[in-house]
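A student in our group prepared the protein record below, which I am reviewing. This is what I was given:
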Amino acid sequence: MQTKTTTAGATAVPQALRATRVRYLVLAMLFIATTINYADRASISIAGSAMQKDFGIDAVSLGFIFSAFGWSYVIAQLPGGWLLDRFGSRRVYGASIFLWSVFTLLQGTIGFLAGAAAIAAMFALRFLVGFAEAPSFPANSRIVAAWFPANERGTASAIFNSAQYAATVIFAPLMGWLVHAFGWHAVFIVMGVLGIVMAIAWRLFMKDPREHPGVNRAEIEYIEAGGGLVDLDRGERGVAKKQGPDLRHIRQLLRSRMLMGIYLAQYCINALTYFFISWFPVYLVQARGMSILKAGFVASVPAIAGFLGGILGGIVSDALLRRGSSLSVARKVPIVLGMLLSMSMVICNYVDAQAIVVAVMALAFFGKGLGALGWAVNSDTAPKEIAGLSGALMNTFGNLSSITTPIAVGYIVGHTGSFNGALVFVGLHGLVACVCYLFMVGKIERVKLGALPASN
């Protein structure tokens, strides 16, 4: 069977057999799983103000509770990446969904505790949620690399990455209502049950490309001809499957200037994310005088803008690639423009009207979504043999901000009594991300293990 190849890496559907489109159903599963993933991360932000009152904790203590997820999420990234390379995305991701959902549900059971015991229990459970969620985004990236050709990866990655905004759009109003009607405990119980249902659906539906009963040979050939790694989880290709974790591979990745630029930029991009899913609803309540019910609904407005920006970033990037732009230009243009727009959040320090604050935050998070193409870049650059480990290393750098951002904002607010300095702190991360992609990353291309500097 002949498969035609067009410009810019695009591939034509084989004429003898019309290709199925199972990859889009796979992407829908990734989107739903990631939406629940981020809703579970953000549940603490909606419940945060009510928990502060119940447990009598200050802003600094709440910041540490917000950060608990980040500590374990970062620690578990490299082991999680190795597990993905060793056992495959489907199995590891399914177990991850189930475990983080159980730990989320258990957070709704600590209401009988008080004071330090309550803080310790919540910190421990948030820590376990982070540990269980660690393989999720490297798994998303691996699955996209396996199921999508290169000229569709930007959009596919943008869609699953935009689930973080969809989580707020869909669940922030629901969680705000749950807190208002039933108390903060109900948020965790409802989200935990939804996650367990998702884990069952994942187990029933998800398969590797060549093993999925709905896919035909034409779709496999289309994906493969466009650079899709359809055999990523089959056989013994992966280095991790043969050897287990190897610190030499990590050292080699860290010696790549391109990858280090990507990793540092991902840290900055995620700092914007973690302000939004941790302190933003608290900002609306404490700095802008909104009720928790209103804050839950209002928080969905910037989230909608972020979702639209995220989808548009992937579409623009892939369109540039199809029209002949280099991979570097196609990925960097939306990232740099988006990060510049994200800095607009600082304007909120100079306005009082709630409607203008929400509009400016919507613009900032539209920009953040537009520039959030880190996972597409990872799919473009990760060595085939250690795709999971490479994604985990990027996620390790990126999610250090899940520790630093909540704590830093907590200290700034606690010591100044204002969110003004916090918005400047968060907004400057957009500028640093631009600098990384413009002056450090250079040409974006797939890394080959043999092409990296040899370890000593």
User: Anything to note?
Assistant: The domain at 21-213+241-451 is CATH 1.20.1250.20 (Growth Hormone; Chain: A;). The chain is about 75% helix and 0% strand.
